[in-house]
Every structure is written in structure tokens, then in C-alpha cells.
From TrEMBL:
One Pfam family named in its UniProt record: RMP
Function: May be involved in photoreceptor outer segment disk morphogenesis.
PANTHER family: CILIA- AND FLAGELLA-ASSOCIATED PROTEIN 418, PROTEIN C8ORF37
Organism: Daubentonia madagascariensis
GO cellular component: cytoplasm; photoreceptor inner segment
Subcellular location: Cytoplasm; Photoreceptor inner segment
Phylogenetic classification of the source organism: Eukaryota, Metazoa, Chordata, Craniata, Vertebrata
Protein name: Cilia- and flagella-associated protein 418
Keywords: Cell projection, Cilium, Cytoplasm, Flagellum
Keyword match tRNA-binding: no
Region (Disordered): 28-51
Length: 207
């Protein structure tokens, strides 16, 4: 890459840095015309100044274009892209592992003594983000309550999810947890795998 840069600089110098006699305003003065000596010198000096400023601008433009050309080479782009993709990729993977995309497997229900969170085979936690795929309602739960035996489908259909209406059928009982959506309800006391209750259409709603 250094050799390519030297060649390009040599080419620029040969094209733009060598003075052109015609551009310098050097013309052969007629013999015996001594009165034109001063004006010719002034023209030559002005031409030199103009050429210097023009060449300076051209050199700067050419150097800028050369620098841009070098950084636009595929090798530069590939290296920077690889480094960026590695770091950003690792960050996104870590983020997805740590928070996003986690859901309960298996899904557990439990009484008030069972902690809530993400349930796994080694972490027995009651899911606190349940959703019913039958009625499309989020499942509510109330610690240390149980549902009264007189509860029916119409009661939950008309009163979900407002607690001040639902509490009419809630009975205090330590250690239990009352679950309900708009179409189903359960009172749970022990850790229970949701798959064992085939009537419930509840799933973990975490993403």
C-alpha cells in the first residue's frame, strides 16, 4: 500500500508540480524593444504567483483525493467492518441471552409461598406473566386468596380484570394464590406444572 501511495504522489508531482514555460508567460522578446522589459517582467512575476496558488490548490485537492482513495480501498472497509460486527454481535447476543427471549419452560403455577419469576427445570418459580390463548386476556393472580365455590364463567366474563369487582368472590386463605382470566380460574397452593391441567389454555407471555 505504501508503494502505491508513492507512485500516486510521483504521478501528481510530474503532472502538476513542473512549471510550464507557456503558463509562466515566458515569451521571446523582440530585439531592440527595450521599453517592454519591465512589463514583461511584471507579467512573468504575476504568472508565477498565479501558477503557485493554482498548484497549491491542485496539490491539496489531489492529496485529499488520494487519501480518500486509500481509505476507500476494500481492505480498510473489510477490517473495520469485521471489528465492528464482532463487538456489536457479541453485545446483541449477550443482551438477548440475559433478558430478551426468556420464557418459562416448563410453566409453573404456585401458592403464595412459591416465588414468582422465570420457571425452569432447576428453578421452580411460578410464572407471573401468563396469558390465555382462548380469551386473549392476561391472567391475574392474588396472593393469600382463593376463589369462592360459587364462581362461574359469567362472573369472570363480566368482571375481569377489575379487582374491586372480583374481590366479591375472593376468600382470604393464607398460602394460596388465586388465578383467573376471562374464561378460566384456579386456586393453587402447591407448585403445579401447567401441563398437568389440560383444560387451561394458559401460556407464558414473556418474550
Amino acid at each position: 500500500m505504501a508503494e502505491d501511495l508513492d507512485e500516486l504522489l510521483d504521478e501528481v508531482e510530474s503532472k502538476f508540480c513542473r512549471p510550464d514555460p507557456l503558463r509562466l508567460g515566458i515569451v521571446e522578446r523582440p530585439k531592440g524593444c527595450g521599453g517592454g522589459t519591465h512589463s514583461s517582467d511584471r507579467n512573468r512575476a504575476q504568472a508565477k504567483e498565479t501558477l503557485r496558488s493554482t498548484e497549491t490548490f491542485k496539490k491539496e485537492d489531489d492529496l485529499d483525493s488520494l487519501i480518500n482513495e486509500i481509505f476507500e480501498e476494500p481492505n480498510f472497509d473489510k477490517k473495520s467492518f469485521k471489528l465492528k460486527s464482532k463487538s456489536s454481535g457479541n453485545t446483541s447476543v449477550k443482551a438477548s441471552i440475559q433478558g430478551f427471549g426468556k420464557s418459562c419452560s416448563p410453566v409453573y403455577l404456585g401458592g403464595s409461598a412459591i416465588p414468582c419469576g422465570i420457571g425452569t427445570n432447576t428453578s421452580w418459580r411460578a410464572c407471573d406473566h401468563l396469558r390465555c390463548v382462548a380469551c386473549d386476556f392476561w391472567v391475574v393472580s392474588y396472593n393469600d386468596y382463593m376463589w369462592d365455590k360459587s364462581c362461574d364463567y359469567l362472573f369472570f366474563r363480566n368482571n375481569m380484570p377489575e379487582f374491586h369487582k372480583l374481590k366479591a368472590k375472593l376468600v382470604k386463605k393464607k398460602g394460596t394464590r388465586a388465578y383467573a382470566c376471562q374464561c378460566s380460574w384456579r386456586t393453587i397452593e402447591e407448585l403445579t406444572d401447567l401441563q398437568t391441567d389440560h383444560q387451561l389454555r394458559w401460556v407464558c407471555g414473556k418474550h
